[in-house]
Amino acid sequence: MDMDSMQLFNIVLTGVLRGGLYALMAVGLSLVFGVMNIPNFAHGEFYMLGAYFSYFTYTYFHFGPISSILLAAVGTFILGAIAEKTLFYPLRKRSKKNWIMNTFLLTLGISIVLQNGAKMLWGNTYRGITQYWPGKVSIASFNISNDRIAGFCIAMVTIAIFWLFLNKTTMGRAIRAVSQDETGASIVGVNLNVIHTLTFALSCLLAGLAGAILLSISPAYPFMGVQPLYKSWFVLILVGMGNIGASIYGGLLVGLLETFAYMKFGSGWQDVVSLAIIIMILIFKPRGLFAKKGVKSVSE
After folding, report:
1. Contact, 254 vs 274, CB < 8 A?
2. Which of 68, 86, 196, 229 has the fewest beta carbons closer than 10 A?
3. DSSP class of 200
4. Is pTM beyond 0.85 here?
């Protein structure tokens, strides 16, 4: 393999590994927007909580890597369900107009509370681990840590299970029905309150899982959720708001673009490239590249 082919292979491999985690975050954000019409700006904080949960279960209680990651997912699922029942459910009962703006402000408030709550509880100290799974794998003279490979595999398996859940189970089909026509789903007997709580909890689970998976690469600290949140929004704007399936491809695409920009132009350029593409999308195709019919664009 010549140098150009080697470099291209490295870009593709690194981009796919990075994009898999972006996809996991973006699917959760897309889910809650597609079903509940909530632009969740606290999504990154559930990523942060997942990282903290995994850190404490792994280092203090000495659970194994898989157990720590799963417990972090369960923890963020429970917190998501509590948040929906105590905050979004009452708002839904009282707020019939300006729902998107009201939930935007609410999630922004949740984000600030969670960031400062984590700071009060655990301080600004970075809390991370050296590795979940020791060692590296050499692929065409390119070394990749076992943690990155395992993280990508866990993300892809989770997305596959989630896809099967949405398409093959009664509850999953109910979620899809609500995303397409909430009134019609309610008429045929779907319990909207259950679906809304489950949807928000699942979205938080996916974010928490991503934070737990990346603990050895990105240590837990109170403000760590900002960048993953931005990346998730990049993906959603790219593919179309609420388009859950396309979020997978969008995450991989953003990962590839950022890796290419970083390797070709240097540090910092990955965000420039992402933002430039998002601006072009908003100007020329504001509903996104794979927008679903009837879904509003970001600018609407």
Report:
1. yes
2. 86
3. H
4. yes
For the record, the structure tokens of 112 come out as 């600030």
Helix H or strand E segment including 137:
strand 136-139
Beta bridge pairs of residue 144: 137
Longest CA–CA span in the chain (Å) reads: 64
Q: How many helices (H) and strands (E) does the chain have?
A: 12, 2
Domains and CATH numbers, the chain: 3-284 (1.10.3470)
pLDDT, tens digit (0-9, with 9 covering 90-100), for 26-46: 999 999 998 999 999 999 999
Q: Which residue has the tokens 């922004």?
A: 108
Whether the CB-CB separation of 27 and 249 falls below 8 Å is answered with no
Whether 206 and 28 have beta carbons less than 8 Å apart is answered as yes
Q: Do 27 and 242 contact (CB within 8 A), yes or no?
A: no
Q: How many CB atoms lie within 10 A of CB 231?
A: 25
Residue with tokens 């009201």: 102
252-282 pLDDT tens trace: 888 888 888 877 777 777 778 778 888 888 8
More confident residue, 234 or 199: 199
Q: Among 12-16, 255-259, 287-291, which stretch is predicted with the lowest mean pLDDT? A: 287-291
**Residues in Cβ contact with 130 at an 8 Å cutoff, skipping those fewer than 6 apart:** 216
| Residue written as token pair 């699917």 | 27
Instruction: Report the phi/psi class of residue 243: left, alpha or beta, with left for phi > 0 and alpha for psi in -120 to 50.
Output: beta
Q: How far apart are the first and last CA of the chain?
A: 49
CA distance 297 to 129: 40
Give the Cα separation of 119 and 128 in Å (integer).
15
